[in-house]
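Run log // design_07
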């Protein structure tokens, strides 16, 4: 079998046929996409048309370059990923129009405020008192061209939003700027996550550039950070690289990465922690004695770089979603637990640590008000859900006492939202659900995602059942907590289903759950990484064209 495949694999004729097929696909996407985009928008201005040509040409070249190197050089996933990701990330900065990403106004304004601190200046700030949030800082951010949306959103994006962005890159005078009032809460979550995009914003402001550059440079810094972190993770991952690769390039993931949202940093940091956890447990141990700057933790050997990355990711995630994703930081410990921890000299360390942890938890409950806090959480009624004053949520104890009501909400949610969630994950809808992509492309992305779970011949990983169960539960926990938060703080008492839970909330820990339920039995065909790389690049190209074709 392997001999037959070797002849097939390395045949120049077969390689030529594959390359011609890639060229044919790229040309077809280019022609059909051009007809669709320009035929659907015959009256579009020069700005939109210019951007459409940019996507058509750059995306097509990307497909051809990736196809050539994967067919003739078979570049590994971890080496080709940064090139693909940075190219797609740059395109997505404008593919998803400014302020289309969920909560982008708040994210941009927070980064702009950090930029104010960098520059030791504030732009028309004023303090007001909000009934919900208390003291808030209200500031006027300058946006070039009044066509950018603020609070009124049409049913779908249109060419005017692209025109506005392109025109804002030109020489727009201050008289043509419009003042859009936005609110920044002093308690805004993830504030540290805005430091990096704020650097890009500050750079553009120092050069006195217009809004397009201010927004673009800020989003670009987020993209660069995202690509660097996920590249490190994919390279570190001992197996399952395809899963990380596909998830990292899903449209909904790139949408968040190419924005000011702290989701970009969240996904990147969690991916790094996941990769480090699997490397510590299943990585190539033969090279570990050659590492420099090793630190010996009981039964685990880590490098200083790994330890610093772990601490760095934890520091960033502490500022996001009240630290819910820090649950993932238990993964390295859970995977590395073994019998040695509880025998011989190991138990002299393990047992005291467990005793101290139990004693600390007991002290918190008994002496530090932990019990009262739990009772308060269970019995308290969430206030002002969904920003509507005078409306209260439902106390958790009511769902506990009436499980039938909770079960009904969940069942109705699954019935009404299952298609939408999968459509989001695949890229069928983006932004504020007004950016559409062909459902065929979204479905293709999901099929690739499922196929990435397969373990092919010569792939060797020892992901045992116990570790699979623990890993799956760790990956599922943040999703369940987020879903519960939407139930309590976003669902009205009279709603018939849970409101507000989106597909993007699954992305950060999706790879753990997929690794846990996939890669069981080997399939007797060799590794096909290069095929996944080409197909995901082609799908990304077709997806971007599809977005513009639906404008």
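design_07 sequence
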């Amino acid at each position: 079998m392997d001999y037959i495949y070797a002849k097939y694999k390395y045949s120049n004729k077969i390689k030529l046929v594959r390359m011609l097929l890639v060229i044919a696909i790229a040309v077809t996407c280019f022609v059909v996409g051009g007809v669709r985009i320009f035929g659907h928008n015959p009256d579009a201005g020069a700005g939109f048309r210019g951007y459409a040509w940019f996507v058509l040409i750059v995306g097509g070249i990307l497909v051809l370059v990736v196809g050539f190197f994967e067919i003739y050089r078979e570049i590994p996933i971890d080496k080709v990923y940064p090139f693909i990701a940075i190219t797609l990330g740059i395109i997505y900065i404008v593919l998803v129009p400014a302020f289309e990403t969920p909560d982008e106004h708040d994210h941009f304004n927070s980064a702009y405020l950090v930029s104010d601190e960098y520059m030791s200046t504030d732009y028309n700030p004023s303090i007001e008192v909000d009934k919900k949030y208390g003291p808030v800082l209200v500031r006027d951010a300058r946006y070039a061209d009044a066509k950018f949306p603020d609070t009124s959103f049409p049913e779908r994006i249109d060419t005017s939003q692209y025109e506005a962005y392109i025109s804002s890159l030109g020489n727009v005078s201050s008289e043509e700027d419009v003042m859009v009032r936005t609110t920044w809460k002093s308690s805004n979550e993830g504030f540290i996550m805005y430091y990096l995009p704020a650097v890009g914003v500050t750079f553009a402001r120092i050069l006195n550039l217009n809004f397009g550059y201010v927004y673009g440079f800020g989003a670009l810094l987020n993209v660069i950070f995202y690509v660097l972190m996920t590249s490190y993770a994919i390279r570190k991952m001992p197996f399952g690289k395809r899963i990380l690769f596909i998830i990292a390039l899903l449209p909904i993931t790139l949408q968040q990465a190419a924005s000011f949202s702290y989701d970009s940093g969240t996904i990147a940091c969690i991916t790094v922690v996941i990769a480090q956890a699997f490397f510590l447990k299943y990585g190539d141990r033969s090279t570990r004695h050659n590492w420099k700057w090793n630190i010996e933790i009981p039964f685990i050997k880590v490098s200083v770089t790994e330890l610093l990355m772990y601490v760095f990711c934890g520091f960033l995630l502490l500022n996001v979603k009240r630290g819910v994703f820090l649950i993932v930081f238990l993964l390295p410990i859970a995977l590395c637990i073994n019998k040695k921890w509880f025998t011989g000299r190991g138990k002299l360390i393990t047992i005291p640590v467990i005793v101290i942890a139990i004693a600390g938890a007991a002290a918190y409950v008994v002496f530090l008000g932990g019990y009262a806090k739990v009772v308060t959480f269970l019995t308290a009624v969430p206030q002002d859900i969904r920003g509507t004053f005078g409306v209260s949520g439902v106390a958790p104890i009511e769902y506990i006492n009436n499980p039938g009501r909770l079960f009904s909400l969940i069942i109705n949610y699954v019935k009404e939202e299952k298609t939408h969630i999968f459509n989001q994950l695949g890229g069928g809808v983006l932004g504020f659900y007004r950016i559409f992509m062909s459902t065929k492309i979204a479905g293709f992305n999901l099929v690739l995602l499922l196929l990435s779970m397969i373990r092919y011949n010569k792939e060797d990983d020892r992901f045992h059942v116990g570790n699979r169960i623990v890993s799956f539960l760790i990956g599922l926990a943040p999703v369940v907590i987020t879903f519960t938060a939407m139930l309590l703080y976003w669902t009205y008492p009279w709603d018939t289903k849970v409101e507000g839970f989106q597909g993007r909330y699954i992305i950060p820990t999706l790879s753990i759950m997929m690794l846990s339920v996939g890669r069981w039995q080997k399939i007797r065909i060799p590794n096909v990484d290069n095929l996944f790389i080409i197909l995901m690049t082609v799908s990304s190209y077709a997806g971007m064209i599809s977005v513009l074709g639906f404008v």
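The radius of gyration is 25 Å.
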